[in-house]
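This part of the workshop introduces the protein records we will be handling. A record pairs a protein's sequence with a compact description of its fold. Comparing a sequence with its tokens is the quickest way to learn the format. To make this concrete, we reproduce a full record directly below:
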Amino acid sequence: MIRIDWETTPASLAPRIQRMWEVSAPKVLSIDASYNPARGTPVFTAAGRYTSRGWTEWTQGFQFGSAILQFDATGDERFLTIGRRRTIDLMAPHVTHVGVHDHGFNNVSTYGNLVRLIREGRAAGTDGEILFLELALKCSGAVQAARWTPTKDGGGFIHSFNGPHSLFVDTMRSLRALAIGHKLGHALMGENDKPISLLDRLIQHGTATARYNVYFGEGRDSFDIRGRTAHESVFNTNDGAYRCPSSQQGYSPFTTWTRGLAWAMCGYAELLEFFEALGGVDPETAALFRKAAEATCDFYIEHTPNDGAPYWDTGAPNLHRLGDYLSRPADPFNEHEPVDASAAAIAAQGLMRLGQYLKEPRYMKAGLTVLRTLLDEPYLSADPEHQGLLLHSVYHRPNGWDYVPPGRKVPCGESSMWGDYHLREAALYAQRLANAGPYLTFWTD
């Protein structure tokens, strides 16, 4: 269980956050200078250098979004130039990508961050540029919403790249694309010119995820523990009936892949904020999203080592070899199971946002405790020769894709594009709280 530091505040983390941005800057520049987009999107590091890994193109937005966040935090125009130019030159295929569930990752991190900065007055931008960025976001939200599977109960979900049978928990954080499209007044146009509400699809997807991917300790099956998540839910596409849990990146359908858990934590928390900004949604939806947010955040607090850094799956088969691992800090250099610091970076923001939304110090302080852990060694990568920022990230343990250093038995010491981006985003969120700056949201009013 996380040992919450009740004394930690956003202001007390300011020196660590400042150091992180100083460490971050040369890494963003190094990746931009050395990486050839023709080789594919950089995904994770091997021996300290970013490399690609073919599966789906879901990390390029994090690469360029990291440069935009670096500018946001520091005001260094070099990074705005990189983020703006790379978004214009390279991100258009992601806007109309019909084969993935990742629009909120790629496009909100780039087009979304750019228009947010312009609307906040933090970056210069013409009316034409704003229209261009907002058109990309409208299209992205509609394309994402079109990837739709109806369910037997009358709802539906945005299906994963696995196909129309597959509901991934990851997509909770990708719903931001639909949210922004709706906020901009856009809709998906269907057959016979029927307008389809992006907000309705967002709500239906979040509802399906809560019902099928999040557990509430209500006796659903033999492994129903409140707050745990299944990576994937499988449906019969002939009639839309739910069939079973599954997992692509976790250990099993009945254990909790911690990055999937973190996506749910962060996704539900920020959508509660979004609903509030809209003036509210129906009480049943709000209650279900809050129930899912609280359950997943509670599970993370209770099933994570005391420093807030989780192992890659709470049911990983060799965790028992570590003894009472929850009562001490995670050990990324152990010989049995890898730590996934990227899950911690995502979870930290989810915890902080839920705490801010509920005015509940327990969640806010837990999130700050996790963030504090990640801003220090052995997680913060201060080595200028290592292109990663957040060490000990894991991509796909079952497939064995992660780099295992010589002399080690499990992956460690490496970074991922999503982990680096989300550490920067969580740090920026805390920085704005510390400075009483504009509250950081993915949308603009």
Summary: The chain has a mean pLDDT of 97.
